[in-house]
Automatic annotation (TrEMBL), chains A, B:
Keywords: Cytoplasm, Hydrolase, Serine esterase
UniProt entry tagged with the keyword Hydrolase: yes
Lineage of the species this protein comes from: Eukaryota, Metazoa, Spiralia, Gnathifera, Rotifera
Protein name: S-formylglutathione hydrolase
Gene3D superfamilies: alpha/beta hydrolase (3.40.50.1820)
UniProt-annotated location(s): Cytoplasm
NCBIfam families: fghA_ester_D
Cross-referenced PANTHER family: S-FORMYLGLUTATHIONE HYDROLASE
Name of the top EC class for this enzyme: hydrolase
Length: 287, 287
């Protein structure tokens, strides 16, 4: 392990280890924590990596304590790494006033407005610094890296996949914010992070990005799960817009409506294994 | 559902439902919350019930959010109910000063000292009021009810099994406090709840109780898991004392040392399915 990482937690689970590390991030200019589960098989060989991006208000703890991901990471032999959802402790005025903006709500974008741009560089953090950090420090097969996420993190996973062609071999999402341009949460945040000019916002909207995507195509349609009782579905997530945009762009997607399920971790944990299977299948069909 | 229960949470998970209810408890004289997972199969038939007792500082949320129990309850077709670890909101002086005493730390015993005896009646709450409440309100097969728990809750499960012969057909535990008479946490609590006379304390010590037990014997030795890296093992849990007491009482027990595992939920979640299998096997061999 390189000296750049500080071990915060190490706990054996399903034969492998759940770790939490902290490190000084040069991208977001503060100390960041992340979770990483390492299965036993990674002691001896390079294994696939899944990066999971979390939802609004979560930190690096929620995914690793509330989904039972360790069982699946052990069973499938994947390293699973999950970054925090924002910079922390930067003490910028207003960064803790709203649950849908600031700490716990970075939207995985790079802020351009002066007040926020020194710290809120979550797109670059996840896809450059964090990505490289995980590859450098753990036994990752760099040809088999996927990304997925939940709600705000589903948005993050989709835009990361579309904006970094080929970097991630697979993508999936649970109840993602499908159109950040339309979602009230992200509109509020984008106004602050990016300013009033909505043309800039399109750089971080999955529906806009899919029409510009020219990278490798998935083998099976991208898996998106959504609960029929998701309380945010109609007013914040806009799955229909993504279906329409993907259809127009001839990008394959499968949006599964899960009857009776809601938005939270009880929904995510139920279908988490299906997402592992999806990514595994994509890795097995790499061109 | 009877009017005695107030629904606090209902969330679909693994095809069944995770609920949290509150109710006004006459036993502990305050409003109590509990979790209960109901698998789909219970819509049509009576199913087994497992009661899970949690550890120090937990409330009804920890077990249902941190162990992935829903997957197993669904897979095995069990109702799983978990009460809180203490009365709440009683505003007794000193009930929130220590992490190992008072709120979140009721030790599943019935207090006799005046200051605490009106509310801290957790043994009677779990084994009478809560037990009856679950049977009355959910589709439980009363011939197949087991109890298990973690740490303080492992102690609670063991003493409940021994003190209520035949009420629970099976018992198991994760890293239980094996001898409450020896554990510093419970000694502190018993002094306050029961007074100075340690002969009274023996009524709530698993090692003492096994020697008095004359109820039905388990089919397979009672399953107890303990992590070799459990930081509380030697000074608070005293597993050797339980092994010795069970041996002397000819009561069958299997204490599995799980190499490298610690005390917390990452350990519990890893071996939770083994405990479901254990209880299922006991139910299948009921005499």
């Amino acid at each position: 392990m390189s000296s750049e990482l500080t071990l915060e937690l190490s706990s054996k689970s399903f034969d492998g280890y759940q770790y939490v590390y902290s490190h000084d991030s040069f991208t977001v200019d503060c100390t960041m924590k992340f979770g990483v589960y390492v299965p036993t098989i990674a002691d001896n060989e390079c294994v696939p990596l899944l990066i999971f991006l979390s939802d609004l208000t979560s930190n690096e703890q929620n995914f690793i304590t509330q989904t039972g991901v360790q069982r699946l990471a052990s069973k499938y032999g994947f390293i699973v790494a999950n970054p925090d959802t924002s910079p922390r402790g930067c003490n910028i005025e207003g960064d803790r006033d709203q649950r849908d903006f600031g700490e716990g709500a970075g939207y995985y974008i790079d802020a351009t407005e002066d007040k926020w741009s020194n710290n809120y560089q979550m797109f670059s953090y996840v896809n450059d610094e964090f990505y490289e950090l995980i590859i450098r420090n753990f036994n990752v097969d760099i040809s088999r890296i996927g990304i997925f996420g939940h709600s705000m993190g589903g948005h993050g996973a989709l835009i990361s996949f579309f904006k970094c062609p080929g970097q991630y071999k697979s993508v999936s999402a649970f109840a993602p914010i499908c159109s950040a341009l339309k979602c009230e949460w992200s509109r509020n945040a984008f106004t602050k992070f990016l300013g009033q000019d909505e043309t800039l916002w399109k750089e971080y909207d999955a529906c806009e990005l899919v029409s510009l995507y020219h990278g490798p195509m998935p083998y099976a349609p991208v898996l998106i799960d959504l609960g029929s009782n998701d309380q945010y579905k109609d007013d914040y997530l806009f799955p229909d817009k993504l279906l329409e945009a993907c259809c127009n762009a001839s990008f394959p997607i499968q949006l599964r409506q899960q009857i009776g399920y809601e938005h939270g971790y009880f929904f995510v944990m139920t279908f988490l294994e299906d997402h592992f299977k999806y990514h595994k299948n994509e890795f097995e069909h790499l061109k």
